[in-house]
Specification:
about 140 residues; mainly alpha; elongated; disordered N terminus
Length: about 140
C-alpha cells in the first residue's frame, strides 16, 4: 500500500511524484510555518496539548482546502475530503501521543516540542494525501 502511495519507482523516481512532493512542501510548508509559530506562541497561554489542538484545527481547514487540487491535482469530494479529515485526525492523535511521550521523558522548550511533532506528523500527512488523492492508473 505504501509503495502505491509513493509511486512505482518511488516519489522521486517520476515527474508526477516529484511535482506532488514539491507542491506538498509548498502548501504543507506554508501551513507548517504558520501553525508552528502559532503553536509556540500559544504555549505561553495554553498547555502544549491545547495549543496543538487549536493550531491543528486551523491547519486542517487550510490543508483540506488545498491538498486535493493544488498538491495532487485531484477533485475534492465530500468522500475524499471526509477521508482526508479522518486521516488527519488519526495523525493528530499520533502528534498528541508524541507530545505526551516527549513531555514524559523530558522538559523540552515549546520550539523543540513543535519541531519534533512536525517531524513525526508531516511524513504521515504526505502519505495519507498521496493515498487518498492519487490519480487512477491510465
Amino acid at each position: 500500500m505504501a509503495e502505491a502511495a509513493l509511486g512505482a519507482p518511488g516519489v522521486l523516481g517520476n515527474r508526477a511524484g516529484l511535482g506532488q512532493l514539491v507542491r506538498f512542501l509548498l502548501v504543507g510548508g506554508s501551513n507548517t510555518l504558520i501553525t508552528l509559530v502559532l503553536f509556540v506562541l500559544l504555549q505561553n497561554w495554553l498547555s502544549a496539548s491545547a495549543a496543538y489542538t487549536v493550531v491543528f484545527a486551523l491547519g486542517l481547514a487550510y490543508t483540506t482546502a488545498m491538498t486535493a487540487n493544488v498538491v495532487f491535482g485531484s477533485r475534492l469530494t465530500w468522500r475524499t475530503g471526509g477521508a482526508f479529515v479522518g486521516w488527519y485526525l488519526l495523525v493528530y492523535g499520533v502528534g498528541l501521543l508524541s507530545i505526551q511521550l516527549l513531555h514524559t521523558w523530558a522538559d523540552p522548550s515549546p520550539t523543540v516540542t513543535a519541531v519534533l511533532t512536525v517531524v513525526v506528523t508531516a511524513p504521515l500527512n504526505f502519505l495519507g494525501g498521496r493515498l487518498l488523492f492519487r490519480q487512477p492508473a491510465a
